[in-house]
Amino acid sequence: MIAGMVSVPRPQISATMRETENVTPLELFFDLVFVLALTQCTALMADEPTWEGLAKGILVLSLLWWAWVGYAWLTSVVDPEEGAVRIAMFAAMAAFLIVSLCIPQAFSGLALEFAIAYGFVRAGQIALFVIASREERELRSSVRGLAISTAIGVGLILGSSFLDAGAQGAVFVVAILLDVGGPYFFGADGWKLVPEHFAERHGLIIIIALGESIVAIGAGADAALTFGIAAAAVFGITLAAAQWWAYFDVVALVAARRLAKAAPGREQNEMARDSYSYLHLPMVAGIVLVALGLKKTLGDVGEPLKLVPAFALVGGLSLYLLAHVLFRLRNIRTLNTRRLLVAVIYLALLPVAVELPALATVAIVTAIFVALIAYETIAFADARDRIRHQLTSELGSPATSNPTPSPARSRA
Asked: Is the pTM of this model over 0.70?
């Protein structure tokens, strides 16, 4: 072969930015395992509808969320479908699947198996990051910090498997705080990401979480179809649609644009960490709690919900909206008082939710959410139209030079 025509083989795993912005089919395939994890968390809480069961479900969800977040950051550095990375992703999926299967007994008979499988999930992420950062000094420094916080978190989870459920839960809390807090303390300078890909990946996980609400409707309606069950199912899908609208109609577009416009490096990485890695967890947790409430509602639409499922329903909706309030505050520095007010109203409905038939409760909370969406859509129609058309166009083309939305857009 002529010397000038010899091509240098490209490393299978490198620290160069991924070449495409869109989420790849393998990433979507990977996320399907997270569907089972969400379903198992809901099942764990449904089988133990107590405050302790609720806490267990949220703790496990938080652990799995942080594992998923790690792979979202990873695939913003390397192309998951290139070379050996593809095989590593399949291996991580297998470990994630074992973790999900262990969830119902994560605080009892399968605690050790849960911890070991979780350790494999996290170790795979760190190993790929180490290889990907071999030519990037700043990225390698950040990976070292992540490896330390991950090792501490996984070690605590492994050690907690030998304790009773109460002590295990307490150790889970410490492990999550140390692991999740690691990136906040060791800095955000060295990380790399493709902002459009990163935002899209988190948007898709919101859809997956909302899908769990639909699964919960089907799982809860295990009796013969009646008018009450059909009505509850319609209210449930309407509520899920309203949650979808609250995120994807404008919020997701504005947040993605802000992330894309942020200066690469610390500013962009900190925004990605705070807005997506941190604040999407309460969004997903809120959706999962609502799914639990819907599942219990479908079980007996004529009876009032018990205290814990009632709290899951109204508290989940409140948590979801509060996360939206903080998401907007972090991104555009303004407070969405409407969503904040509705979040408070939902919490105030708890005494009513344990007295009314479950069907009536679901109808009320759905009507409130739909009213919120309708008000925002009508009251800010012009600004909404500008945002949707302009930002949709910008996110599909090279970014313009002005990263700050106008006051009219900020109010939407």
From this structure: yes
- The Cα angle at residue 356 between residues 351 and 362, in degrees rounded to 5: 95
39 neighbors 211 (Cβ within 8 angstroms): no
Cα–Cα nearest to 281, from 243, 319, 237, 245: 319
Contact 306, 329 (CB under 8 A): no
Predicted confidence (pLDDT) at residue 412 exceeds the cutoff of 70 = no
Which of 197, 320, 334, 199 lies closest to 253, judged by CA? 199
Nearest to 92 by CA among 105, 78, 104, 106: 78
pLDDT tens string 93-136: 999 999 999 999 999 999 999 999 999 999 999 988 888 777 77
Residues 316-331: tens digit of each pLDDT: 999 999 999 999 999 8
Structural contact between residues 161 and 168, judged by C-beta atoms closer than 8 angstroms: yes
Mean pLDDT of the chain: 86
φ/ψ bin of 384: left (φ > 0), alpha (ψ from -120 to 50), beta (otherwise): alpha
